[in-house]
## 1
Amino acid sequence: MSDLKVYLIAGEPSGDLLGARLMRSLKKQMKDKVSFFGVGGEAMEAEGLHSLFDISDLSVMGIMEVIPSIPKILRHLDEIVADIQKIKPDIVMTIDSYSFSARVHQRLKQAGYERPHVHCVAPQVWAWKKGRAKKIGQFVDHLFCLLPNEKKYFEPHGMKTTFIGHPVIEGGADKGNGTAFREKYNIPSFSTVLCLLPGSRKNEIKYLLPVFKESAELLQSYIPQLFVVIPTVATVADKIKKELADWPVPHVIVMGEKERYDAFAASNVALAASGTVSVELAMAGVPHLIAYKVSPLTGVIARKLLKIRFVNLLNLMVDKEVIPELLQEDCTVDNVVETLRQLLEHPEQATRESLEKLGLGDPHAPSDKLAEELQKLASRSNRGGVKKE
């Protein structure tokens, strides 16, 4: 096979990490006979992608929060479709951000682009909007799932679906060097380290950082030797630095995957926004809680639409609360601090079963499985059209 051209579109930082690991696996398996195009963040750019535009333009969540961004998002949709038609990649793969991704595939199908269309990270039809399970097959040729229970929602509709496992399992979150991190940032061995992770989207920072910041201040009144570490990403780093410029609580803001995992290893407890980060913290063995809030109207609508008991992935895997969740009106400073104090006194969290359901222990890494499947799809397409399975 000549060089494979792959077009990747990641809409947020968690998808950026998944895309970067896939790029790494493809380069290794194909001995660098592969080229990448599309949209990604710092992790994918580190693997050689020149992003068409800043990924933060797509990292918007919440009904009321999305509305002001619609004109910009539609412009980017036009840019992507035009770019794909110009480059003519052998395969187009979207990662997460299903609402935007579906529109990309729909536009391409309508324009007659018949090379393989794939999507990774299934839309959460088990949580809400079950009708999407049937609709996705109209625009996507193959769906790759991170969760073991997802195939059953799509295969009855004729959707070719493959479970690959969750990429965090292979990410190295459990291999950080806490001692080196404390030495590098002059954190005393007797300090209690709180890891703050207020999200990777601008609207998450808007709603969560004030609560997280005040919670750390109150916790410091109980634990004077508190030190705060804040791993973040490029999409929100400047905003966080500005908000904490004069913050009296001893802290350090770090970026990059290695620094992030070293920070985890140095931490005694963590406070995080909902999302993939909880799986990373569980891999690292850091006791943590999830706190999350959105605009009041978005919260009301979400409660009416959601069909699940929990929002945390680790809790969903075993249908019980192994990680504390403080959502919307429960996401208060007093509640957060009380839960953090309990976690410091009783740090054990039973996350092993959840992690095994996500692929922990499988000798074949999710990104390697995904890379192999993409090569098969591209080969079967004969570079001129998708052969339906």
## 2
Amino acid sequence: MNYSFFLARRLGLSEGGRKSSPAVKVAVTAVALAVAVMLASVAIVLGFKREIREKVIGFNSHISLYAVPAGESDTNLLTLTPTLCNILDDMDFVTDYSLEASIPAILKTKTDFKGVYMRSLGGASIRNFLTENLEEGAIPDYGNEDNSQKILISRIAADQLGLKKGDKIDTYFITDDVRVRRLEIAGIFNSHFDTYDGIYVYGALPLIQQLGNIEKDQGTNLMIQTDDFNRVEEYSEVIGATMQKALAEGIVYRNYKVQNALTQGAGYFQWLSLLDTNVIVILLLMTVVAIATLISGMLIIILDKKRFIGIIRSLGAPVRNVRKIFVFLAMKVALIGLLAGNVLMLSLLWAQQRWHILHLDPDAYYIDFVPVEMAPGWFLLLNAGIIVVIYLSLILPSIFAAKISPADTMRYE
């Protein structure tokens, strides 16, 4: 066994015979708090990114395909032809797609009214998203014709118009002429995304097609889900290039425009990118605090162990090995703090993830609780980085211990 490591393990962290040095306690506490703050910062930012991303995707899907009008007399309606289905089915990364239609409408009560867009509720992804954010009622089964006159509205719209589940409301649809339907509110959702909640209600695709005088296989766009959102830009380019090639070869008869959730929700993703900068600043500050405290504690320990240094130097211990002893000793302090910080913060993060103990103002943060993501890979990488940085930073103060000569220590004994 390396005797430097052995002596570091056996050497106590006491000062003047006490159980533990105050400097050691401060160093352990500083490392523990720094690690805890770092873990919390990473987990919360990853949680925010996940929640905001899921909301943007929930309203927009991974990729949206739009038909481009060929001229002023042409329509922007997309027709889901068998050819278009075959093209999408041949793409391995496409997991689901559904036709969507929307139409402007006005919800009117006896005392108030609200302009909205009614969107079709057909794809599995949007149904799952609204189910997760449903506050009252249930998602209608639009496969049953009896539910064709039922809609979902947002909590914002319900509060503004004084509506609740089961109420019926006159809805005016604006197409070539104005049409009126008395629709029943089947459920109320609340995603806390005011930008979307404030303008969208959801209904049956056949009802929207009927009111818009369009065919059963037509809609305003196609919502496409992929197997990996992180590659959505790459997939968008593939779909766009495939459609251009199909148009050039005469397989499809019109041009298509491709958009994805990153462009449709660009403002939200730019806001999230600012959080990355904040996290980097926090990590750097906490690292500096932990290192400064450890170095201070290490210097105090070195001064307290001057007699020990003199003895082992007089016994022939090389300077390099003396330095190693105190680096290992300081690393022992750092690892204790690292372990304490991990146990403390991971327990708190787990509790927050399960019970949502800490709440937020949804008007400011688009979510009503502090989101966290337990990311083992990021946590392990963070801990490994902390250990490496601390080890490298402790090499310099260890030189001070190695410079203490046996003659100086013996002179004061």
